[in-house]
Amino acid sequence: MADETGADDALLAELRTVIDMDDPPPPALVEAIKNSLDWLDADHQIAELVSDSHLAGAAALRAAHEPRVLTFTADESTLVVEVVEPPAAAPPDGRRVIGQIVPPAPAGVDVRTADGVTTHVRADEHGRFRATGVSPGPVTISVRYDDASRPPFVTTWIS
Amino acid sequence: MADRSISELVRAACAGDEQAWHEIVDRHARLVWSIARSHRLDDADAGDVFQSTWLRLVENLHRLEQPDQLASWLVTTARRECLRLIKRRDREIPGADATQGEDRIDPTATPPDAAVVRQEEHAQVAAAYHRLPPRCQSLLRLCLADPPLPYAQIAEILEIPLGSIGPQRQRCLARLRQLLSSDDHTDIRAGDV
């Protein structure tokens, strides 16, 4: 390969252009990501994931038919979330997110998906809430207690 | 507009500077997408990996230890997300033939005006690229990443020895050239072989 470098560089440059044109990151996803910086409100604590039934070594086949249960903790709160995927035949917007805040307290709850859509629901005095029609993809949940003395929190993204 | 360094952009984005965040995304979106594609994920799965990787960054933006190493952080995270997704779906990456017949070039598309010749060149290179073995497609794509990836990282992603990257790159490129020249007089855009 005597003439490799110069010719190769030219071909690689061409190939780079081709790949960029042929298979760019989907613009809708790029836009959604650009709008995701405000995920962390300054006054919200981050609730970290401490357990995920999908990572608990359950067989993938079984897990696919069972709700996914995740637990998050912030300083003074624990949140248990169940994500229930709709049956394959149902419309894709049939996903449900069911939650339990511990210790229980009434709160405003925002369920947000990566496309920027937020569903606002209420947690009752038992700390329970339910959101339906949650679109597919990553989800995050933020909780603001009616009792303003308890710090609000937001979960890391469930993906 | 003066170019801001990555660390400056990260710092600004942490402080809520949307513009800085957009620039971070614009500079690295193709890189993250390339990593997902290099694991041969389809559109939906690559989209999942793309989104989760960036959301992980939003979560960790204020605690990045080396903001100037952002590209490397993104690559590592995207790779982890790929492996997690592949494991979760409990299924195999499509085998070597799966993408062989793929032809995303539309033979009926009429390119506008003066760009015709250039478009045809592009179409030929694209068609040849898609006929490369998937390993070659991944390798070349990673070698062309922007910002550039160190060979060590490419080796890790593709799970091949570091020393074989250079030779494999040469072989893949030679194969691409061969596909291009052998098809000079045949209508490679009209379909797959």
From TrEMBL, chain A:
Protein name: Carboxypeptidase regulatory-like domain-containing protein
Lineage: Bacteria, Bacillati, Actinomycetota, Actinomycetes, Jiangellales
UniProtKB/TrEMBL annotation, chain B:
Biological processes per GO annotation: DNA-templated transcription initiation
Residues of the RNA polymerase sigma-70 region domain: 25-91
A molecular function (GO) term: DNA binding
Protein name (Swiss-Prot/TrEMBL): Sigma-70 family RNA polymerase sigma factor
Similarity comment: Belongs to the sigma-70 factor family. ECF subfamily.
Keywords: DNA-binding, Sigma factor, Transcription, Transcription regulation
InterPro entries documented for this protein: RNA_pol_sigma-70-like, RNA_pol_sigma-70_dom, RNA_pol_sigma70_r2, RNA_pol_sigma_r2, RNA_pol_sigma_r3/r4-like, WH-like_DNA-bd_sf
A Pfam family this chain is assigned to: Sigma70_r2
